[in-house]
Amino acid sequence: MPRPEKSFEKRAEEYPRLTQIVLGLPDTHGLVDAITRILSDRGEILDSASPKLGDIRRNLRVAQDRLMTRLQKYVTDSKTVSMLQEPIITA
Q1: Other CB atoms closer than 10 Å to residue 4's CB: what's the count?
Q2: What does the pLDDT look like over 15-74, one tens digit per residue?
Q3: pTM for this structure?
Q4: Taking the domains of the chain in order of start, what are their residue ranges?
Q5: What is the pLDDT, as a whole number, of residue 2?
Q6: Cβ–Cβ under 8 Å, residues 70 and 81
């Protein structure tokens, strides 16, 4: 990512006050790196944003998989299939 002060240094005579303000801004590389480690390109928070979030999302996926497996058994079981209007699972 280009550093903003480099762009303003070229036009310092044209925008002296703005250049002075930009040169006084803190370096943002650490901040940008931290944000890109936490957010996806689509703006979604990544599982890797924190260990706790990763654990929560893993546990959620496991629970959802177990639920879908159990529902699929009901849909295909000859004892329960006659009680269903349609053998379809929707989210």
Answers
A1: 13
A2: 888 888 888 888 777 888 889 899 999 999 999 999 999 999 999 999 999 999 999 998
A3: 0.59
A4: 1-38, 49-91
A5: 56
A6: no
3-state secondary structure the chain: CCCHHHHHHHCCCCCHHHHHHHHCCCCCHHHHHHHHHHECCCCCECHHHCHHHHHHHHHHHHHHHHHHHHHHHHHHCHHHHCCCCCCCCCC
- Distant-in-sequence, close-in-space partners of 39: CB < 8 Å, separation ≥ 6: 45, 46, 49
Measured distance CA(68)–CA(89) in Å, rounded: 8
Predicted pLDDT at 48? 93
Structure tokens at 55: 């654990």
d(CA 51, CA 59): 12
